[in-house]
TrEMBL record:
Domain FecR protein residues, every copy: 181-276
Full protein name: FecR family protein
Organism (species): Sphingobacterium faecale
Pfam families: FecR, FecR_C
Stretches assigned to coiled coil: none
Amino acid sequence: MNTNQEFEDLFAKLANGSITKPELSRLLILLDTQNLDNDLIQKIKLELKQPTLLEDTERVKDIASKARNNIMARTSPTIKGKSRSIYRPAVWWAASLILVGGLAIQYFKTTNQNTPATTNQQATVQDIAPGGNNAVLTLSNGETIVLDSTQQQLVSQEGALKYDGGKNVLSLEDSVYNLTLATPRKCQYQVLLPDGTHVWLNAESKISYPSRFDDNNRTVSVEGEVYFEVAKRQGSKFIVQLGNGHQVEVLGTHFNINSYSDFPSIKTTLLEGSVKVVSTDKTTVTLKPNEQATQRKNRSTITVGTVNTDNIIAWKNNKFNFEGLRFEEIMSQIERWYDVKVEYQNEVPDIEFYGEIGRQNSLLYVLKVFENSGVKLQLKGNKLLVY
């Protein structure tokens, strides 16, 4: 386990009151591995270590409030007409660590004093685990295979389908099969196509491809969000069909396509190489690295802009990145990854978020980010209510 992951795991224990004293000591040590100013690290350590805090709950609250205001002042510029909250990963961890520090200290205080448990039990909200590796493979004859959730990649080779560890999935005959790999909600998967192209599928996505490509043409079709690292093959185009006449043509490149059915636009983002985006009326635009083409599904026009590609492919690296996204777009990611239904009780909040948080965290853990910004959320079963 890397130090960042260990830090997050220990922090989660701190937040829910299950951390032990040795784990708290380890957490304090791991603070040095975070990307924070040294002065800030020392302040956090000092505040969590002060023995006087054990007897002074009000002082804990005062320190937490001042520390949070100090951190947010460093990171939150004012934007005219909007409230904008910035949550850079390490800074958010630090602010949250100070905010829940009082809870952890209070936990140790009551534990040491052997305080009896209260008889007024509050209703607990059932948490929802994050998604993971899973997918369903459908053959041209309609046969379906649920892939091994302990694996993360399907390898398509002539004559066979295997997991990347070598375990056989299916033996194919010499004839060409049409294959469809689909990820339900709460699922992601990878596939190595017959030509060596590496593909990542986000939740609720799909790719259809042949078990063997022609020498001069490689064509696949996708739905949802898919990231490609296309293998170069001289003289052989790689074509991604997006439905309704939209498609992307490449020779060898790295790019991301977002074409979820409930989004009004198709977004193609180029990281490396070159791609040609083709609209319904055959209008074409060639992208350069760090450019994104946006196509309205009911129009033929294509607009191009420069983007931060790290934000676009954060999902591929098992992270949420909220930079520049509308609140509805963020909630769509939450819906797909945790398989919940978001319901707005009032108007959609007009708030923008920045920063990243790992997708390996539970839903309630992720929701703390939004609650700290003033958005009220309530989880009822598989419904997420936004007030």
